[in-house]
Amino acid sequence: MRRWVLFCALFVCVACAVPVTIDAQNTAYRVSMTFDERTLGFRSGVLTVSDTQGTVISDATVTLTAVMRQHGMMTPPLVLLSTPAGYTFEKLEINMVGEWQMLVRVAVNGQESVIELPLVFE
Question: Sign of torsion, CA 68 49 32 30?
């Protein structure tokens, strides 16, 4: 029995430490976001933005804010850096387990759009 409990605990730790990718879209953009881990602490990752036809957008201003509505928590918005791999971020602080909403604000040519991606941190 103890081996089974240890196996399950190890499985949960490994599952949380594996990078996770989430996707969402609205009427203007598609977003794909990869986080390094789904654990507490400072998280980093990369985000790609494309229009609804699939054309990658590399000249937008993109910000990321994590919101935990059930506890009224919110991180300061991070301005993402545009790189050849996509828009990157570091040091997004997640300090409580549970469901967070990743709010991605995309601004192109004076027009803004917000895409919401739910993600559970453990």
Answer: positive
Look at residue 1 in the predicted model and tell me its pLDDT.
58
Residues of the chain falling short of pLDDT 70: 1-17
Sign of CA dihedral 31, 34, 37, 42: negative
Q: For 47-69, what is each residue's pLDDT tens digit?
A: 999 999 999 999 999 999 999 99
CA distance 111 to 70: 30
According to DSSP, the β-strands at 78-79 and 111-121 are: unpaired
Structural domains in the chain plus CATH codes: 19-121 (2.60.40.2480)
